[in-house]
Amino acid sequence: MIGLFILNSDLDALKAKGVAGMIGERTERGYLSRVITLHPMAKETRVVDAGPELPVHELALPAFEGARVRRWLGFIAHVFWAAIYARRLALRESASFVRAQDPYFSGLIGFLATRWPRVPFCISIHADYDQRHALDGKQGAPKILGSRNLAKRLERFLLRRADLVMPIRESLRIQAIGHGASSERTVVFPHAVDFQSIDKVDPALPHEVKVRAVGRKVLLFTGRLSRENYVWDVVEVARRIVGRGDCIFVFIGLGPELDAVRSACSADEALRGTVIVCGPLERRAVHAAQKAAYAGLVLMGGFTLIEFCAARRPCVAYDVEWHRDLIEDGKTGMLLREGDREGLYKVLSRLLDEPDFAGQLGQAAYTRARAQHDVESVMTIRRNIYQRLTAERTLL
Questions:
Q1: Spatial separation of the C-alpha atoms in residues 300 and 321, rounded to whole Å
Q2: CA distance 393 to 163
Q3: pLDDT digits (tens, 9 = 90+) for 259-290
């Protein structure tokens, strides 16, 4: 089986985030004999081998100038060119299916590329875009001509016409159906985490953190530094809690708020030296840091929440989306009302004061997360979904 994956990224960005290795994970441990990746909005046009049978095709997104309408017309022309490229690529590679990683422009390219001759087409959904837009109206979710409503119309159009819609969790499945997807053709494509691999990673902090963490507990945030991940809630609570003197806060990752968070922490005397913004690290180094941390700050998280559980670290999360699937308050972690900064302060204080309790939460979280997301059990589900996709071609 051969898969063509379309997503709005580029290889250099994936390497900078330390997640380029996830391209190889799309093979589902060899179930897909070849994985072709298309990045239609990249910085340059090129073809790169990310590994054996892992070609990556990148199309440069031109810098469109002029009035907004003119820029959008140029962008739409690029989308249609990318669709033609994807169609030719799918036919030349004899792709078994085409998978778009979002229900917007990647989805539109995939839809246009699979019309004739028909190739099974699916859309995976990895985020609550409405929530992201509510928290960050400027950069949180895709827009068309500055309009979120136009983008949502495109989303509805594509969800109705995909052969399968594959949200990564149940809350997104319900939302996708509400946005137009067929309930019969919408199925959860769960995250898979290699727990055995993470078990083998030795706990280790980045050097700049290790120097400052002597005698202090590390409260760790890993992931995308963005408003929809409540990164500023963490900063505000850090201002109150670092005065204890027994902890430091660490941020690892990229995101639109990275520079602003770094500047704010450098300018604030209370945070300078007690809040460390590392930027991105290679994925194995992130796992090592998660295992070395005292607790994980995952107010909004997907893959990151599972990884912290795999690291046996107690997690603090907001009660949003799917978090209740893993976090049972006081048993497998600490669950708070969304935006409850006072509650976050109190919970972190308790965890710092009660290390035995924190350790119990981390171990319980590991047990629950492994039962739901270990790659050995999840892989069968994901392979069956691909089998269904290629066996049942919906006639539109």
A1: 8
A2: 7
A3: 999 999 999 998 998 999 998 999 999 999 99
